[in-house]
Write a structure and sequence with these properties.
There is one protein chain. This protein is mainly α. It has one domain (33-133). The chain is 87% helix and 0% strand. The chain has helices spanning 7-72, 79-109, 114-133. The longest helix is centred in the first third of the chain and has 66 residues, at 7-72. It is rod-shaped, with a radius of gyration of 30 Å.
Length: 134
């Protein structure tokens, strides 16, 4: 026959188990947030590099492209306008594509700690089942 534990012993054990439980969940949350922060930092760096490259490309190629398209439309009075519109459209498309890639990277990473929330949901279900069995 096994001796029953005193209420004080049971409460002390429960307290230690709860401490360990919350400590584990807190560490899991910290690790996941650190991982997400790292992903966000990488994505932001990629977006900044993309912006710098777009500006550099814009400055170096704009005159050459506009001059080229001006030569194509030289017979028109509006040759500089057409050249500017064509080059602007090209830059808009490239900038939009790079921005879309950066945005999709951030969207894929998300903000909320999904793994931690999933574990906490499982813990909630477990606690509810334990409470029902008492």
């Amino acid at each position: 026959m096994q001796a029953e534990k005193s209420i004080a012993t049971v409460l002390a054990e429960t307290k230690e188990e709860l401490k360990e439980f919350f400590s584990t969940r807190l560490e899991m949350l910290r690790a996941e947030l650190k991982e997400k922060t790292s992903t966000w930092k990488q994505a932001i760096v990629m977006l900044v590099i993309a912006a710098v490259l777009l500006v550099a490309a814009w400055m170096t190629l704009t005159f050459a492209l506009i001059a080229f398209f001006h030569a194509v439309f030289i017979t028109s009075v509006y040759s500089w306008l057409f050249a500017g519109l064509i080059v602007g459209g090209i830059y808009l498309a490239i900038g939009g594509l790079v921005g879309w890639f950066g945005y999709s990277e951030l969207k894929a990473a998300g903000v909320k700690p999904t793994r931690t929330l999933e574990v906490l949901k499982q813990d909630q279900i477990w606690i509810q089942n334990e409470a029902r069995s008492l």
